[in-house]
Design goal:
about 425 residues, alpha+beta, six-stranded mixed barrel, two-stranded antiparallel sheet
């Protein structure tokens, strides 16, 4: 009987039903789209921001170099160095999938045409064998936004790349040949590229790592490894006590917080330490947090508008059905029966709107994510039950007011009027 009444009632009020369905669909659709983006935007945005350069530095334990220092940067030379194998070791740790790119660096001071030049030996692009398969990385992939005139030097070749500021000082252009001197050691290199990195690196010269090791007489050694890794914002609370809450402590340690990632990466290379670039990491975390807060507020606003639309539509429907409810009360229908009827109608419409909203929101999120981050669409099936629960909540919230109005109708007055 209830099912027949519900279906006939909905069929008789198609326009009102469609308005209610549209309100719930749009509200849950917007909320689903924002929820889908919120679940993925952290990694998406972090990958996009990672194109700005490294956010961690691996250095020898005891090195004097400070990533957050301003001005002169130096590394203690008292026998502290990293092996070249440290780069590949980054992909053998627990957080190997979080490490995106890395580039080894070895500093050497050179004399070029009467100028003292700070030079860095590195891999411009190198394919490394790792437990997870080949890994293509290097300076060119660590800094994809640097503007390059020419081409990056070939591995092991007699070539160099110059910062744009240094090139102006030396009067060098792509294709010119430079005479490099480091004490008694000399080398001739061709200028393969001019780079616009910005900051202090405008006056830097880059060499293939092998060439820099020869000039510095430090074969197989590195000063540091600059790396880019995906991390989550640093928590504002201290880690749980391992003895009192072992599960909470394990969950904390298995989250990609900067300190956890740095500790594990350093453990993979004995004699090393990994230091996050704190200002950069904190800035990225702030951007992600603010974006998630904005999406939460927009989702709440959309659901509120959807609820108001549902209340308005249901109230108008109740007023139009005053005679119907009066007749039902005159025939003995209880308040509970009327409540069940209205709730069943609202739940049916809202659940259908929730399902349609999930489909609409998933498609919208995929389109937004593809345009903004060039990432493949990724549906979130777990949000379907959430969308249905939210839709059911909207149905209940949108029916309470109209139901109270329906219960106040006097059967005699309703039938007479």
């Amino acid at each position: 009987m209830l099912r027949r009444l519900v279906w006939r009632s909905l069929a008789a009020r198609r326009s009102r039903v469609l308005l209610a369905l549209l309100a719930v669909t749009l509200g849950t659709g917007v909320a689903t789209a924002l929820g889908t983006l919120a679940l993925q935007v952290g990694d998406d945005l972090a990958r996009t921001l990672r194109a700005a350069g490294p956010n961690f530095v691996m250095r020898p334990e005891g090195a004097a170099w400070r990533p957050d220092a301003v001005g002169e940067i130096a590394v203690a030379r008292a026998g502290v160095a990293l092996p070249e194998s440290a780069v590949a070791a980054l992909r053998s740790t627990f957080w190997r999938n979080n490490v995106l790119e890395a580039a080894p660096e070895l500093d050497v001071t050179l004399h070029v045409g009467g100028h003292e030049v700070e030079a860095t030996g590195t891999w411009f692009e190198r394919v490394l064998a790792t437990p997870g398969g080949p890994w293509r990385t290097g300076l060119s992939r660590l800094h994809p936004r640097w503007q390059v005139e020419g081409a990056w030097p070939a591995a092991g070749g007699a070539q160099a790349a110059l910062g744009r500021g240094l090139a102006r000082e030396l009067g060098a252009r792509v294709g010119d040949t430079l005479e490099l001197a480091s004490g008694p050691r000399h080398a001739r290199v061709a200028v393969a590229a001019l780079v616009d990195p910005g900051g202090l690196d405008e006056h830097r010269l880059w060499l293939p790592l092998e060439r820099a090791q020869e000039l510095a007489q430090r074969p197989g050694e590195l000063d540091r490894v600059a790396l880019s890794a995906l991390v989550k914002p640093e928590p504002r609370h201290s880690p749980p006590d391992a003895a009192r809450d072992p599960q909470g402590y394990e969950r904390f340690m298995c989250t990609a917080y900067p300190a956890n990632v740095a500790h594990d990466l350093a453990a993979g290379v004995p004699g090393s330490e990994v230091v996050p670039l704190t200002e950069l990491v904190a800035g990225e975390a702030s951007v992600v947090w603010r974006l998630n807060l904005l999406m939460l507020m927009l989702a709440l606003a959309a659901l509120t508008a959807s609820g108001l639309g549902l209340v308005s539509t249901t109230t108008a429907s109740v007023v139009e059905r005053a005679r119907e409810f009066g007749l039902m009360r005159a025939l003995g229908a209880t308040s509970g029966a009327l409540a069940v009827l209205l709730l069943a109608e609202s739940l049916l419409v809202s659940l259908a709107g929730g399902a349609l909203g999930w489909l609409l929101g998933t498609a919208t999120a995929a389109a937004i994510r593809g345009d903004a981050f060039a990432a493949p669409a990724a549906a979130q099936p777990l949000l379907l039950p959430v969308a249905l629960v939210v839709a059911a909540g909207l149905a209940v919230a949108g029916t309470v007011g109209p139901l109270r109005l329906a219960l106040r109708f006097d059967p005699v007055e309703s039938l007479r009027g």
